[in-house]
Amino acid sequence: MVQQEADGLRAAVVAGETSLGIELGSTRIKACLVGPDGSPIAEGSHEWENEYADGVWTYSLDAVHAGLAESYAGLVADVEQRYGVRPTTYGAIGVSAMMHGYLAFDAADGLLVPFRTWRNTSTGPAAAELSELFGYNIPLRWSVAHWYQAVLDDEAHVPEVASLTTLAGYVHRRLTGRSVLGVGDASGMFPVDPATRGYDRRLLDAFDERAATRRAVPKLEELLPEVLVAGQDAGRLTPDGAALLDPTGTLLPGVLLCPPEGDAGTGMVATHSVAPRTGNVSAGTSIFAMVVLEQPLASVHHELDLVTTPAGDLVAMVHCNNGASELGAWAGVLGELATALGSEAGRDDVFAALFRAALDGDADGGGLLAYNYLAGEPITGLDEGRPLVVRTPGSRFTLANFARTQIYGVFGTLALGMRVLAGENVGLDAMFAHGGLFRTEGVAQRFLAAAIDAPVTVGRTAGEGGAWGIALLGSFSRARESQPGLDLATFLGEQVFATAELDTVAPDAEDVAGFAAYLERYDAGLAVERAAVTAL
Asked: Where is the Carbohydrate kinase FGGY C-terminal domain (predicted)?
């Protein structure tokens, strides 16, 4: 049976009946290949890190190009090892990446200033002015905030700007020659009208009128990518695009591409969270929760973004700039200690040991506090961050409590934002979690359930993340060619998740009470974090 399955997948690879997804995450560019049933069958990856240069969190476009080629080469090598063939084509390709930020190009498609990622918090005046103008929360990291801040600051490059896009939009344009975005990613550039699945016309007009009082700039709609919804044809792989992915020349042009999406949208797809009253938590360098709404929120909250699913349905998003990076840094230090003691423990072994230890910690973390703020955190009003571990002389300072509070720290700001969402009485039937944080079974999942006081479901593919999600969106575009009326929720429910292996953990009462006590200290201790930013 195993050989028959391998033979079937080999035939699917040769026939181009697979879909390729590539996601440019904060620390890794990952390529994921899925078979005809949507299951992952091969992968490749490339590690990278953002740079902090001249006060800006950025990645160079050279690093983007090199990382794409390396992650694709890794995937091809994996396919060859598993199935003995080298792919020359696919049924569909999809590109996803970190949402938001600022990529500004001139008329010759030249980058005008270094890519400003979602992590930058330098857009306070613009975000505040636009939020008041629109009556709609405009987060610091949104592309329109970056653009308007550049206008307010009279930056030298502003007169030359001919187009704006996101990282996923840029890569897609390099692959197809088309400047388009999936509606979910577009909703992190500028507010989207759920009724039209396009940019909000009333707010576009309001922006143009306000910007004109500052200086002469093109109408914003002329700068933004075209908006597409999931399933639409977003172009075909060009010869130049094929060469960018595969410099060996083996990959053939002509492959269908689905609309490029942000990591929030692909996270929803990868967790089957695209229908109202469903939600998901994605944990990586940043951490965010998405809840698909039945109706608009009653009030504007700075803690909550309004974005959309890849199909264009309204979503409330709690986005925290700081996720698991500080936890990873501590795991690295403990790994160095293990090496110094003569252990051959690898990174995964260290993480597993740290997570297992956390299970033995006190429910409230023993009086310890951990702040994972490597960067600023808009939800708590911080423009910069300073990672901290704080305790009192009476705290129970053990490995177990240290480990537990480091994981609690990943969820701290998220829990503050989820409180606001709960205050809007938003209905939530299911919360799914994905990302590498959830690979160690029964730990982060259990603590997240305590943090949000709701059941949390993790699937077998929890660690696959957005690369799998965008590959599924590619498969959906391909399926829509023969089934034009097929909707995304039905496709996922009937063709991908019908037989999915899921594990659901209900919140434990002791954990819930313990995390609540921790969060109370965490909220009060933000004064210490603010003092650290001022003093250090």
From this structure: 280-476
CB 457 within 8 A of CB 430: yes
Tokens of 119: 């992590």
The residue ranges of DSSP E strands in 40-115, in sequence order, are: 40-47, 51-53, 56-58, 92-97, 103-105
- Integer Cα distance of 69 and 24 in angstroms: 12
443-499 pLDDT tens trace:
999 999 999 999 999 887 655 678 999 999 999 999 999 899 999 999 999 999 888
Closest CA to 24 of 115, 91, 134: 115
Residues 6+ apart with CB under 8 A from 334: 350, 354
**DSSP E strands: which ranges in 154-220?**
163-165, 180-182, 192-193, 198-199
Angle in degrees, CA 406, 409, 410, rounded to 5: 100
In the 8-state DSSP scheme, what is residue 253?
A: S
Question: What is the pTM (predicted TM-score) of this model?
Answer: 0.84
Whether the Cβ atoms of residue 258 and residue 240 lie closer than 8 Å to each other: no
Please report where in the chains the tokens 């709960």 appear, as a residue: 422
Q: Provide the token pair at 143.
A: 């592309």
Residues 380 and 247: their CA atoms lie apart, in Å, by 45
The one-character DSSP state at 248 is: T
Burial class (CB in 10 A: 0-12, 13-18, 19+), 356: middle
- Rounded to whole angstroms, the Cα distance separating 145 from 287 reads 21
| Residue 494, C-beta contacts closer than 8 angstroms, at least 6 positions apart | none
